[in-house]
Design brief:
The strands form two sheets. A three-stranded antiparallel β-sheet has the order 3-4-5, with no helix packed on it. A two-stranded antiparallel ribbon has the order 1-2. It starts with 9 loop residues before the first helix and ends with a helix. The protein is built from nine helices and five strands, in the order ααββααααββααβα. The chain is mainly alpha-helical.
Amino acid sequence: RGTRTPNGANTTGAALILACDYLELSDDESFIKSYLGKMLRAGRWIIGEIRATRTKGNPNYGIMPECCASDGDYGQVVFTDCWLLGGLQRLRDVLKLLNHPDYVEFADECRQYKHDFDAVLDRVSTPDGFISRSFGDDSHVCNEFRFTDTCLDCVAAGVSSAKEPRMANYLEWLEENAFKWLFCSEVTPGIYYVGNNELTCMKMYLEQEEWKKAWIAAFVFRRFVLTPDVHLTAERYSANDIGFTAWQPNGSNNGRFI
């Protein structure tokens, strides 16, 4: 995806993660022949974008330039960089597995990107554990997504660990300031965004050996996100209206939850 399209720029990284996972698990030679070239072009697009922001004095040095991050966010936003960095790192892993000649270059770019991304996250973190999801003063972020497209995605995308102090402190901040009842993200009063955050929190709690909290997150996912018949996932739940039908299927969550 280009940075000027209405689609989220983060989709390039997410697609790379899915493609690399499949390639590693399947060893599908026909897939490698058909798609490795396209995957390399996607990786080089990411590298070209972040190289363009490596300018002296730039407070957001080395991260993605302004782009459409997700449905409601535009600017320099964590939801873009965490997934693009995650995708670039997974592509690096596959290139190493294939003994590809471009592995060293991609490994170097991943190290630099991670270093620069961490520096920006440090800058927008506060002593109480909060991390801003936008990095620029001119970013336009959707208020309804304030606890949806958050820095939890750094863990979901595989670029951070739940045991890192920054992420552990941020999860504690969310527990105290954002979580509502059993849910991670209230979009509007009584309407909750469900699925992705509960799944990520479950993984974080497992990593932190917080077994009860991990079970609760998994319970919420099974009870309020998955349909009981074909196990499709929704993205909205209403605690007040049993007839609420804002159906937004998110099938990618099914396998990740299992």
